[in-house]
Every structure is written in C-alpha cells, then in structure tokens.
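User: Some background: our group keeps a shared notebook of sequences we're curious about, and every so often someone picks one and asks for a predicted structure to add to the entry. Today it's my turn. The entry only has the sequence so far, pasted here. Could you supply the structure so I can complete it?
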Amino acid sequence: MGKQTIVVISTPECDLEFAIQSSTTGKNLFDQICHTIGVKEVWYFGLEYTDKHGFSSWIKMYKKVKDQNLQKMYPWRFKFKVKLYPEDVSFDVIHPYSALIPLL
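Assistant: Of course. Here's the predicted structure to add to the notebook entry:
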C-alpha cells in the first residue's frame, strides 16, 4: 500500500475529505465522490481545481491525481462542479439530487 494523501472536495452542501493512494487517478477519485454523494448522471459533472499558476482547471481523469498541475499546498482541494448543463433537466436527469446541484 502506497502513501496516502488527504484531499478535500467542496460540494454545494459540504466539504468532504478522502484519503487517496499515490496511484489514484482522477477517474478513481471522481467515481468515489459520485458514489459517496449519490450522483448517477456523472457525465454532467467534473472536479475543478486551481493549478499552480492560479488558473482554474478540470482534473484529467486518465492522470494520477498527484501528477495533475496542482498547487504545492496540502490538503489538495477540488470543487465538485457542473461541467455540462443538460438541455432539458426534466428529461435528461434521472436522479432528482443531480438536478438540484446547479441551483445550490
């Protein structure tokens, strides 16, 4: 088992802490968050962070979290945000909680 790092994920409702391994990819972390908060329509969301140059960036799902262009501060902080808005929420969204996230 590799070294664990704490990450903080800000959602519209609260901050969540996760301990991740050095081998954890962006997709692994994203899937864990979606499972924890019960989001089914994962394709509408993403993890945003501020990179080491001060710009907002989306986490790259295929890269390890530790290999992203992260700031040198711990714990690493991400925001669970809407990345793509559905055209018709009543038709496109399966889980009612997912429809509320952009409104919070």
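Suggested note for the entry: The longest strand covers residues 4-10. The mean pLDDT is 84.
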